[in-house]
Design a protein that fits this description.
This protein has nine helices and 15 strands. The protein has helices at 3-9, 56-63, 68-76, 108-116, 121-127, 184-193, 209-216, 230-241, 259-264; strands at residues 16-18, 21-24, 36-39, 44-47, 52-54, 98-103, 129-135, 138-146, 152-155, 160-163, 169-171, 177-181, 199-202, 221-225, 246-248. Strands 1-2-3-4-5 form a five-stranded antiparallel beta sheet, covered by helices on one side. Helix 2 packs across helix 3. The relative contact order is 0.11.
């Protein structure tokens, strides 16, 4: 399970991102300067303030103040609850992302960012909005992709964040085909390249796979467009084992990490995936 996505499911956003290093205000106690680092490449954390670190299990037992077995039972039970208390910073306030407003996508900077990701603007405007949000007493603007609980996935050229509540996004039109995909950029890429007639389920975090699979059981055909990495392998295996009808579609972009990486390698506006439905 990806540590960055796990912290996002708890409503925690990084204070800064440097390549594969994600820096956070410490989840265990208050501080002014972010000293809690996750190496996404290694999927391990280290807190420089107290000189300790580890993996997801080490984080969970410290964060929830529980035993290993208690934390594993908590993970197995489904959606992971936020801790009993959220530690304040030294100033006595909790730093959170707050979405201030939303409007149709129009910023030239955001539209250019989408073009660099080879997303058709018409597709992005259909499924996303432009938002203003505050973080650490500063205001920013970004692309917002809403989930079913009222939270947002937040993207611009410099940030990859989430505004709580964190949840999946479902885009339903009454089809008998369901498509499961990890992130909203991959969803926009798939619609740009194929625009398949299906009900879409965007995880927004692989931590939500367990809660999403029961929603797919009534569909006769279930297409998996997950990432080509160990986490994508694990999620694909788990989905296929959960019941009949699942198809692993990663062969369509087997030389790339995910659908957006595949799309970026194609000419803008001319990318098409083979017909699979």
């Amino acid at each position: 399970m990806d540590l960055v996505e796990f912290l996002a499911s708890l409503g925690m956003a990084p204070a800064k991102i440097t390549r594969d290093d994600y820096w956070y205000i410490c989840p265990f106690h208050g501080e002014r300067t972010a000293s809690f680092k996750i190496s996404r490449k290694l999927n391990r954390w280290f807190h420089f303030g107290i000189g300790v670190g580890g993996d997801l299990i080490d984080f969970g037992i410290r964060y929830y103040e529980c035993t290993i077995s208690q934390f594993l039972n908590l993970l197995a039970a489904g959606p992971v609850p936020i801790a009993r208390h959220i530690p304040p910073t030294d100033t006595g306030t909790v730093k959170e992302i707050t979405v201030l407003n939303s409007r149709p996508l129009s910023s030239s900077a955001l539209l250019n960012y989408l073009r660099k990701r080879k997303i058709l603007i018409s597709v992005a405007k259909r499924h996303c909005v432009e938002i203003d949000y505050s973080l650490y007493e500063r205001t920013y603007f970004a692309i917002g992709f809403a989930n079913r609980s009222g939270g947002y996935e937040i993207r611009n050229a410099y940030s990859k964040l989430s505004a709580s509540p964190k949840d999946i996004t479902s885009i339903l039109s009454g089809n008998s085909v369901a498509i499961l995909i990890e992130g909203f950029m991959d969803f926009l890429s798939l619609v740009t390249a194929a625009n398949l007639e299906a009900d879409y389920f965007i995880l927004n975090s692989t931590a939500f796979l367990t809660r999403t699979l029961p929603l797919l059981q009534s569909y006769t055909t279930k297409l998996l467009f997950l990432d080509n990495d160990p986490t994508g392998d694990r999620c694909t295996t788990q989905a296929i084992a959960s019941g009949p009808g699942f198809q692993d579609c990663r062969y369509l972009y087997s030389q790339f990490h995910d659908p957006n990486d595949w799309l970026i390698a194609q000419p803008y506006g001319k990318a098409t995936l083979p017909k699979i439905l």
